[in-house]
Design goal:
This is Myb/SANT-like domain-containing protein. The chain is mainly α. 60% of the residues lie in helices and 11% in strands. The chain has one domain. Strand 1 and strand 2 form a beta hairpin.
């Protein structure tokens, strides 16, 4: 399975921006869960420094032709995932059992 450069990247004013395909998203999340379960790179509720390099190595095995690099590809996608999940978490908190006030529920 190969990934053509033309279907996974586009040009913008800051250079070439890589577009992720759903299979890559799935592999990234699965590899992050595996990395967490192994425990080598865990610190409190986050990963230790240099975990991106290990994640790159693991992803290379599952997606050999994707050419995902720790920086900028993985770093950027993880930043995006954190932002998106923070929004989902806040929405869940506002409508879930942790909602405290009407204002909290409306926001």
């Amino acid at each position: 399975l190969g990934f053509s450069q033309s279907s996974t990247s586009s040009q913008n004013s800051r250079g070439i921006k890589r577009k992720w395909v759903p299979k890559e998203d799935d592999a990234l999340v699965a590899c992050m869960v595996d990395l967490h379960n192994v425990g080598t790179f865990n610190v409190d509720t986050r990963f230790k420094d240099k975990y991106l390099n290990e994640l790159e190595r693991i992803l290379e095995k599952s997606l050999p032709h994707a050419m995902l690099k720790a920086k900028p590809n993985l770093e950027s996608m993880i930043r995006t995932l954190k932002r998106d999940w923070a929004i989902v978490y806040d929405m869940h908190r506002a409508i879930g059992k942790d909602a405290q006030t009407t204002v909290c529920i409306v926001e």
